Amino acid sequence: MRYLLLFFPVFLFGHHTTDSETLFSQANEAYQKGSYPEAIALYERCLQVAPSANAHFNIGNAAFQNGDIGRSVLAYERALSLRPFDKGIQHNLRFVRQSKQLSPLPLPTFFQQWNPFPYPLWLCVLAGFFWAFVGLLLAWFYGKRGIAVQVTLGLLLTGLIFAATGSYVAHQRLAYGIVMADSPLKVAPTGQSPSKGTLLAGSWVYILGEQKHDFFVRNEKQEEGWVAIEYLSKLKQ
């Protein structure tokens, strides 16, 4: 049986303050009472203090309960960008998208895309580099300096490939936007422009350009057009 997971009850601050903790507790109380707009507003005030996957996650839950699919998907995506391995966030984002027949982002984060291990990829890579470094020291100690140099160059090249790939994927994700409410995909950036179709709340688009009042986007069907700024939020805050 599929269901929406419960909210996170705590908010982790870099510097704990009584006011911040009180604010988050008030947001949780509003959520539990069913006052979802109030809860969202309070969680957003928490985010003004510090970035938090928990706060984004709770906003996603409250927005979904309030029928705001666009804001729910956006909040879960932002939570996932801060905590890419969190199964609860992944579950809720998948649940909301499947409930509305929405497609996931076509380009997942680097760690999600390359994570065949039971532990986070960065831990596996770190362990691999550690043991490779130990091997280098042993090779150098026993006089195999030519091999040590070759392995060092190989490790440097591997690290550069990982860094470049991760940076590229992260940059690509920042170019995506989430449709906040059902919106027409316009032929031109004018108020009287004819429409090519409708972008559903919670669906993703790739942002190709931006003018004063409109974004130029490409949707999942590879259709290009214009959407008013008030209907779209960038994945990056």
Give a written overview of the molecule:
With 237 residues, this protein is of the alpha+beta class. The protein folds into 3 domains: 18-102, Serine Threonine Protein Phosphatase 5, Tetratricopeptide repeat, CATH 1.25.40.10; 113-173; 176-234, Roll (SH3 type barrels), CATH 2.30.30. 52% of the residues lie in helices and 14% in strands. The chain contains 8 helices and 7 strands; from the N terminus they run H-H-H-H-H-H-H-H-E-E-E-E-E-E-E. It has helices at 18-32, 36-49, 53-65, 69-82, 87-99, 110-113, 121-141, 145-174, and strands at 176-179, 183-186, 195-199, 204-210, 214-218, 224-228, 232-234. A 5-stranded antiparallel beta sheet has the order 6-5-4-1-7. Strands 2-3 form a two-stranded antiparallel ribbon. A hairpin with a 3-residue loop joins strand 4 and strand 5. Helix 3 packs antiparallel against helix 4 and helix 7 (121-141) runs antiparallel to helix 8. The radius of gyration is 22 Å and the shape is extended. The two termini are 33 Å apart. The model is unreliable at 11-16 and 108-120 (pLDDT under 50).
Helix content: 40-55%
CATH architecture of the largest domain: Alpha Horseshoe
Q: Which structural category fits the helices and strands?
A: alpha+beta
Output the radius of gyration: 22 Å
Stated plainly, the CATH topology of the largest domain is called Serine Threonine Protein Phosphatase 5, Tetratricopeptide repeat
Mean pLDDT across every amino acid position: 79
H/E order of the elements?
HHHHHHHHEEEEEEE
CATH level 1 name of the largest domain: Mainly Alpha
CATH superfamily of the largest domain: Tetratricopeptide repeat domain
Physical arrangement of strands within the biggest beta sheet = 6-5-4-1-7
Q: How would a textbook summarize the main sheet?
A: 5 strands, antiparallel
Distance between the termini: 33 Å
DSSP strand count: 7
> DSSP helix count?
8
Outline type: extended
Q: How much strand?
A: 5-15%
Number of domains: 3
Uncertain residue segments: 11-16, 108-120
